[in-house]
Amino acid sequence: MTSPVVSALLPVVLLIAMGVIAGRVGWIRAEATKDLSNLVFMVLTPALLFRAMSGVHIEQLNFKPVALYFVAVGVLYALVFLTQGRDTRAAVLGLAATFSNTVMIGIPLIGLAYGQAALVMLLTLISVHALILLTVATIVLEIVEARHLEAAQLTDAAQPRNAWRTVLTAIKNGIIHPVPLPIIVGLLFAQTGLVIPEVLDRPLQLLGNAFGPIALLLVGATLTQVRVGSHVRSALGISVLKNLALPVLVASVCWLAGLRGLEWKVMVVAAALPMGANVFLFAQRYQVAQDLVTASMAVSSALGLISITLVMSLVSWMI
After folding, report:
1. Which of 33, 69, 130, 233 is the most buried if burial means most Cβ atoms within 10 Å?
2. SS3 category, 270
């Protein structure tokens, strides 16, 4: 019988490999990857996120384990951001070390391993996972970019802009954005009790279903355009933070807060999942650390076959 770890991770590895082949033979040219990235970021991602959030009812969800999860995530993100230079590159690397592939890998893996009750807990995390991490990363990126732009435009006679105005502008840009905005709109729509009409829901479903495969093919195609070998050491460091350090941190925070049983297992395993494709899309959109993030995603996915098996074995032994 195939291990649930292998059955969940193998399609991801195969799709990235297909993208590598397509890039090598010229089916996806270098100049086309930017257009594909825009397609994924501006069309497929909003459709996926809006539809996923459109059925989430806040009162039915238990957010305590999720809150503890994000305490640990916040600690690691801040640590990476502060130690890597506090710039746009550091903001993206912080996301790389904390953003899990909770949908493509997490849903089938946790559903197969722990059952329906565990899947409901994971979906609770997923309902705010992208909203919190991608919004925070976007706001950090926008604040850093705004500060750099402001510094570049200042002259000896110029007066610096009000700091609060800079922050508020960055927050506005972070919310009115292809990722956080559809999440917020979808969540608000869900609270009305309305249902998306079939004539609209079907196209949204098709677009959302296309997100994962196209994003992973795009990662593979991009791998052919960079020298991964020159980034292996740094990529391995980021992957160790993502695949091993984060689950240890989540396990510790949740345990100290009194969380036990299935909820604890789900949060720890979710933290151990490989890096999500949205990190690559962020890096490409902001033109920051693209080669390193691409290499890190490949290494994280490959390392996941070992690290997830190790983490799942440990959590089963402990509880």
Report:
1. 69
2. helix
pLDDT in tens, 165-197: 655 665 666 566 676 688 778 888 988 888 899
Q: Which domain, by its residues, includes 222?
A: 4-23+30-151+159-318
Question: 271 near 70, Cβ under 8 Å?
Answer: no
- Cα angle, residue 84 at apex, residues 83 and 90 outer, rounded to 5°: 125
What domain count does the chain have?
Answer: 1
Give the CB-side neighbour count of residue 10, counting CA atoms within 13 A. Answer: 6
Tell me what percent of the residues of the chain surpass a pLDDT of 70: 85
User: How many residues does this entry show for the chain?
Assistant: 319
CA 31 to chain centre: 25
pTM over 0.70: yes
Give the model confidence (pLDDT) of 230-288 as tens digits: 788 899 999 999 999 999 999 999 999 999 889 999 999 999 998 987 788 778 777 88
Between CA 2 and CA 51 the distance in angstroms is: 31
- Report the C-alpha gap between 300 and 228 in whole angstroms: 13
Q: State in Å, rounded, how far the first CA of the chain is from the last one.
A: 24
Task: Give the closest residue to 132 by CA, choosing from 167, 177, 93, 183.
Answer: 183
CATH number at residue 243: 1.20.1530.20
Please tell me the distance from the alpha carbon of residue 138 to that of residue 120, in angstroms, as a whole number: 27
Q: How far is it, in rounded angstroms, from Cα 284 to Cα 41?
A: 10
